[in-house]
Amino acid sequence: MLNYKNHQEKLEKIKSGEISLSENVKHFLKNIEANKKLNAFNFVFSEDALKDAELIETKIKSSSSCGKLAGMVIAIKDVLALKDKPLTCSSKILKDFVSLYNATAINKLKEQDAIIIGKTSCDEFAMGSSNENSAFGPVLNPVDPSRVPGGSSGGSAVAVASECCDAALGTDTGGSIRQPAAFCGVFGLKPTYGRVSRFGLTAFASSFDSIGPFTNNVEDASLILEVISGKDCLDSTSADIPVPDFQKLLDDVNLASGDYNGKPRIGIPKEYFGQGLNPEIRESIENLIGKLKTSGFEVKEISLPHTEYSIATYYILTTAEASSNLARYDGARYGYRSSESHNLKQMYTLSRSEGFGKEVKRRIMLGTYVLSAGYYDAYYKKAQKVRRLLKNDFDNAFSEVDLILTPTTPSTAFKIGEKSSDPLEMYLNDIYTTSANLAGIPGINIPIATSSEGLPIGLQLMANQFNETALLKMSYYIQKNLL
After folding, report:
1. Could you read off the pLDDT of 73-101 as tens digits, one per residue?
2. In the chain, where are the structural domains located?
């Protein structure tokens, strides 16, 4: 059991000698081994982590300045490039591929003295909602191993929930941070699109993908976001917008009095509370809404009228982008190459047929279809127009409120294999999360309760573009005063 609440407390205890960073890393490595059956990690970097722990502990205790994340032990999703380490995206087609460079987000972690303990499993190429699509086998939920941890960043969520690291990085294309965070009972933050550089992130859908943290508390999520954010000349979509001191801004929440300076207006979209929402999730969220009202927050019903089109729009646009992005995996340049091929065309066909898993091939075919002549206007072009309408819905909503509060998922973690035979039912599990990616806005999962079966229940907060400050302050208030 860890004897610190957040990174700042850990850092102080390392400085005072109460905690040995090397022993702390060994504790995590023991937990990784003890929880091996959960299958959260594709690769563990024991020697590197212990070596870094010694160097960083010396730095913390000496007069030399140390980074903001000094001693924070972090796992990273196996879609992010880490130099001289495997980068598989949990796919056979990238078996034995080793990265030649670091992702920008990883460089920023290292510059601030974080320790990278390993790479976590995920749905292949981040395509899935259950983490059952990994070439390394399914990841199991630490609360109930008969259930899924959520996807696609299930390994990262499990690593944090099972105390195998202080925090983890995941990616969110349609809910792939927030949904597994909800299923595993941790905090999961999806930043605004463009807040964090995507350089070194293996692309699934380039206009949707976001990198963000899993943590056990809002303070650490704020700190990691602050470190990894910012303009990057290597990513033209990264925004040239100043990065706030997110941790300092949390001080605006006065914990002594339970007050919140400048209370935000909170919107409850009626479309997110219809049929299909688990009654226990509904009750837990309504209870928390009641507490917010009692605490003096303005809570009002709003409408996001095009919500019903979000899943169809999302799966048309993301599969189209996936079809284009995954064309580079052809068996010729890197990764898996079929040994059965006798000519170039056969090599391409067999390498991709054997190297990609079932779900990835399904999405490539869907994407190729919606981009094909005769169907482009009917599907892809129309979906882009609906994406604009969905964004307009949020723009209108944020003219009335500062934050939007919803369920993160329609159900608690479901059984492994329960939805594998019905892709549509699986896709509908993202009903509350895809809209934030379509609109490019930030969202966070906050673990607020457990069900009668002991399964975690999550609440989602969303804010307008680049307003992570409001998102984090409200999350901090809820964490400290209402849970």
Report:
1. 999 999 999 999 999 999 999 999 999 99
2. 7-251
pLDDT, tens digit (0-9, with 9 covering 90-100), for 23-64: 999 999 999 999 999 999 999 999 999 999 999 999 999 867
Establish how many alpha carbons lie within 13 A of residue 156's alpha carbon, considering only the half-sphere containing its beta carbon: 37
Strand partners, 299: 266
Coil/strand/helix, residue 70: coil
Alpha carbons 1 and 30: distance in angstroms, whole number: 12
| Topology adopted by domain 7-251 | Amidase signature (AS) enzymes (3.90.1300)
Residues forming a β-bridge with 406: 460
Question: Looking only at Cα atoms, what is the longest distance across the chain?
Answer: 74
Active site residues: 77, 152, 176
d(CA 259, CA 252): 9
CA dist list (Å): 227 to 105, 113, 318: 8, 11, 28
| Contact (CB, 8 A) for 146 and 132 | no
Nearby residues of 73 by Cβ (< 8 Å), 6 or more positions away: 24, 25, 28, 49, 114, 115, 117, 165, 166, 167
Q: Give the count of alpha carbons within 13 A of 50, CB side only.
A: 8
